[in-house]
Amino acid sequence: MTKPNWNYLVDVVMFALMGAMIFIGVMMAFFLASGPVTDETTKYVWGLHRHQWGDIHMILSFIFTGLFLIHILLHWGWIKGATRKLLRSPATLILILLLPVLVILVSWSVCEKDSPAYAEFGRRAGARLRRAVDPPPPPPPVVDDVAVNKEQPQKVEINGRMSLADIEKATGIKAERIAGELGLPQDAPLDQNLGRLRRVYNFQIEQVRDLINKLSGGKIEAVDSDAAVHKGQPDAPKMGRGTGRGTGRGTGRGTGQGMGRGKSQQQGQGLRQQEINGRLSLADVERITGVPASAIIKKLNLPAGTSKDERLGYLRRRYGFSIQQVREAISALKKK
Questions:
Q1: Would you state the pLDDT for residue 9?
Q2: How do residues 19-70 score in pLDDT, each as one tens digit?
Q3: pLDDT digit string (tens) for 248-302?
């Protein structure tokens, strides 16, 4: 093939690659959903996930870069001649070749660094370090065969912080089997916690516990140690001190002081027993404390459209408040 034919072939392929990259870029920017809380089903087009489209875009860009270098080599004589004729300075040609680097440096300098809007995506894409989004699940309880009857089922904690892979380690039941029984697709992530999976695939954590009991043949009892917190039923404190004092020093005074102190102790102890932690949502907090979720959102200066069903742990990382601030806000709103 002659040199002009090679030039034509390289330019045609480069044009096709550029058109494909522009198409994929526009599709990812305007038509494919993104974000950690977005429904995964909206991130697919023609059976491919947005990350797979991104991989195709990257491969096409590598091929385009190689052809672009070949294009430069094929036209190098013309480039040198045109530079001498138009610019009359070899240094100007070097400056033109450095323009892409200058564009990248200028773009980087004007962009916001470590933006909180992208905190959930982690840092250093491509690294093998996994960001700890939730605390590790507690280890399964050790059952003593001597102290416990062997026929009694083993109790294992199953909660929304655990992934299907964690459940497999704790129970010995294959994660793929659990996912199949729940009706999840084959590409469902087995290392993602149940709290996020249930929002995407619409199942309940209680279904997972019942399924573990069934698949183990009754040898494992899946439990939730936070059930009392979710139901919001703290134990009532005793009022023994006030009554005893009333018997010794007079019924009227003793009964009055006993009832007053007993009531204040009940309120204080009730607030302590109503544990507010990152696993609860604003809706859970409203149900437990009786304080409206909208008032808590306003007290914490959160956006008006904040979802009441999102866990406090996720909201804390996104908007920068602490769980202690939530407790203080609830105490302040209760006093009103």
A1: 92
A2: 999 999 998 888 887 766 566 677 888 888 888 898 999 999 999 999 999 9
A3: 343 344 444 444 444 444 444 444 434 788 888 888 888 888 888 889 988 888 8
- Residue in 135, 211, 133, 123 with CA at minimum distance from that of residue 171: 211
The phi, psi pair for 70, rounded to 5°, reads -65, -40
Give CA torsion, residues 261, 262, 268, 274, to 10 deg.
Answer: 180
Backbone angles phi, psi at 173, to 5 degrees: -90, 130
Place of tokens 């004007």: 110
pTM: 0.35
Nearest 5°: the CA angle 301, 123, 160 is 65
- pLDDT for position 267: 44
